[in-house]
Design goal:
The chain is of the alpha/beta class and about 375 residues long. It has two domains: about 170 residues, VC0802-like (2-Layer Sandwich), CATH 3.30.2130; about 170 residues, Vaccinia Virus protein VP39 (Rossmann fold, 3-Layer(aba) Sandwich). It is built from eleven helices and 15 strands. The C terminus is likely disordered.
């Protein structure tokens, strides 16, 4: 079956599907039709002119091309995937991609990336080569196989194949490269954050133009840069004890208003109650180990965060386990949002925290406004 021409699919990290859907709706790109495993399907607004804008919380964006029933788990029926190339209206897809990107030109060649759910007796490369060979023949262009591990030649148009147990779906990438590959990401360090995840955290923080935003362990600066791009106008500050991290963050943030200095997250050079929002992927030891004052006393991280945060402030953090919340609560921070995400197959949590005293005061005020004289006690 052919897919209607205006349908697109945004691919994302597991757990960010709702964030991507919200961004599609907020940016008025179109109407969301379905949320799937790491996918948001939406129909583009027919009245929308010009190139499509970037979805910062999505990993990639595709035009739906064709769909058929999943072939199953064995190699026996791999050849059936070639049907997807026959079903795809390649002439229409090429025109749509050119219209969405406003980048005309011939198709120099193609590559295909595949993924599937469940155990199979074939590899992703087996599936990619069946579809890629058939597509290349249909388009009359070269096909680059990913089997060797070599990157496709520059300019090759990317296609995506997914098999979820029910359907095999073929899609064509809208842009020249995946959305998660940010142009600003010139310098990398160990433990650097995935940009779409950083963008989702920045949106969740509810940053306003008059806010002071802090990342006390900023690494390569990804969280602050995404905050500057998704919610412009705020005052953005980052600290890190590593000179390499500070240099990387400054290089990456050269085009945005972010200030980065060397500093110890266990003793921040900031006054009490001076920060409206904290965004951070703290060094809990998975990829980056605590240094400085945090090496001997990790709990200082929480006490410093609580000290610099304004009474009605918010911290949005990436935590490796839900048990880490116990330390936050001990230091007077109450969770107001917990959202699971999978990073390289491992479970992590985006957690929103606020000073417990401000939540208690807000609830007492709400209670009085409702005419109840009873204060709400936190336990």
């Amino acid at each position: 079956m052919r897919i209607p021409r205006t349908r697109l699919v945004a691919r994302c990290m597991r757990g960010l599907e709702s964030a991507v859907a919200a961004e599609v709706l907020e940016s008025e790109l179109g109407s969301v039709t379905r949320l799937g495993h790491r996918e948001v399907h939406f129909r583009l607004r027919s009245s929308r002119p010009g190139p499509i804008s970037v979805l910062r919380t999505a990993d990639d964006l595709f035009l739906s091309a064709a769909r058929r029933p999943d072939i199953g788990t064995t190699k026996h029926d791999l050849h059936a995937l070639a049907e997807l190339a026959a079903l795809a209206d390649t002439d229409l897809l090429v025109r749509l991609r050119r219209g969405l990107t406003q980048a005309p030109g011939e198709v120099p060649g193609i590559d295909v990336s595949a993924s599937f759910l469940g155990r199979r007796t074939f590899s992703r490369y087996d599936a990619e080569d069946v579809v890629g060979t058939a597509l290349a023949e249909r388009l009359g262009v070269p096909y680059h196989s990913r089997r060797t591990g070599a990157a496709p030649p520059p300019g090759y148009w990317g296609w995506r194949l997914t098999l979820d147990g029910a359907h095999a779906v073929l899609m064509m990438r809208v842009g020249d490269r995946p959305l998660h590959r940010r142009a600003y990401k010139q310098r990398m360090i160990k433990g650097t954050l995935h940009p779409p995840l950083a963008a989702a955290m920045a949106v969740l923080a509810g940053i306003r133009p008059d806010h002071t935003v802090l990342d006390p362990c900023c690494g390569a600066g990804t969280l602050l840069i995404e905050a500057a791009l998704t919610r412009p106008g705020a005052r953005l500050y980052g600290f890190d004890l590593s000179p390499d991290a500070v240099a990387a963050a400054r290089a990456n943030a050269a085009a945005v208003p972010v200030r980065v200095d060397r500093g110890d997250a266990g003793r921040l050079p900031l006054p009490d109650a001076s920060v409206d929002r904290v965004l951070c992927n703290p060094p809990w030891g998975a990829q980056v180990h605590p240094r400085g004052l945090l090496a001997d006393s990790p709990s200082r991280w929480w006490s410093e965060l609580r000290r610099v945060l304004v009474p009605d402030g918010t911290a949005v953090l990436l935590l490796p386990t839900s048990e880490t919340l116990t330390d936050a609560i001990r230091h007077g921070l109450a969770p107001v949002h917990v959202q699971g995400v999978r990073i390289s197959g491992a479970q992590s949590f985006i957690v929103g925290l606020r000073p417990a005293a401000s939540i208690k005061a807000r609830r007492r005020t709400t209670s009085r406004l409702k005419g109840s004289p009873v204060e709400i006690n936190e336990r």
